[in-house]
C-alpha cells in the first residue's frame, strides 16, 4: 500500500484514505520513488501506459479491468525538427486519459463506489469514461461556456453533469464545497497524486519512440497536470542516466489567464492574483492553480521559460495545423501560437516536441 505525504505539514497518510487532502488542509504527494529506468522493465506485451507500470505507483492488478488502451499515441515529425504527439488519438480524444486511467485504477483498488470531479471538459470526460469502465458512479462539474460536445461526451458515459455559472475557478469551488459537505470521493486531476503517475507516461512514450527527448518540450499549463507529470518523468530519466541533460521546457499560458507567467516575471513563489478574461483556450483558463507554488518551484528549479499564447493567433495556428492534416482543439492550437511567440522573443529554434492535447471536433463552438 502506498502512502501520501502532506506538502504542508509532512504527515504521512495511507493512500487508501477517502479524504482529498491532509487534515491540515495541505495537498498530498505520493511517498514513491521510481526505480532506475531500465528498458528491460517495459512490459512489451502491454499496449497501454501500463507497460511502464514498474516506474509508476500502480495498485496491484486493478488497472487490468480499467485500462482502455490509453497512451502509445503516434509521434509525428510534422516538419523537420517539429515533433507532435497525437494525444487526441486516445479513447476520449484527449491527453487526460493517461492520468484518468491511473487515478480510476487506484479508486477501484481501494473500493470507491462514487465520485465527483470538476473540469473544463477534457479531464471530466476522461474520468467519466474510466469510471464507466470501472463501474464507479460519477458526477462532473463544468463551468458555463464549456464546449457542448464535451458535455455530450461526459453524459454519454453515464455521468451526471452540473453546469456551473461563472468561471472555471468558481466551478471548482462549488464542487469542493460538496466534497466537504458530503464526504464524497473527489476524483480530481489536480488534487489526487495518482493522476500525475499516468501523465508521466507522456515522456516515457516519447523516450521509447525516439530513443531520446527533443531539445525543446512545449507544455500547456492551466492547473499543470501534464506539466507536473512530464517534469517528474524527465527528472526520473535524468537521475537514471537515460538522458544526459534536462531539455528546455517552454511552458505556456493564455495571455488572458496568466497567473504563473506574471509570477515568473516578478520572481514570486506564488501565482499572481489576476482578473481572468474569456479565452478560447478553455483548457488552460485557470486563474487560481491549486498547485501553483509547486509549479513555480519546478519552473525555478529547471529554469523554465513561461510564455503567453496570443489570443489573436490561436485560430490561425489551428487552421495551419489542420492544413497539415491534424484537426486540433483551441487549447491545443494555443501551444503552437505560444511556440511561435517564444521563437519571436528568443530566436528561431528547432527540435521541439508539442502535444496535440485534444481533438478539434471537441471544441467546434
From TrEMBL:
Domain Tryptophan synthase beta chain-like PALP span(s) in chain numbering: 66-358
Matching Pfam families: PALP
Any GO BP annotation: isoleucine biosynthetic process
Record GO terms (molecular function): L-serine ammonia-lyase activity; pyridoxal phosphate binding; threonine deaminase activity
Entries under PROSITE patterns matching the protein: DEHYDRATASE_SER_THR
Cofactor(s) demanded: pyridoxal 5'-phosphate
InterPro entries the record matches: Ser/Thr_Dehydratase, Ser/Thr_deHydtase_PyrdxlP-BS, TrpB-like_PALP, TrpB-like_PALP_sf
Keywords associated with the record: Lyase, Pyridoxal phosphate
PANTHER family from the UniProt entry: L-THREONINE DEHYDRATASE CATABOLIC TDCB, THREONINE DEHYDRATASE, MITOCHONDRIAL-RELATED
Record's protein name: Threonine synthase
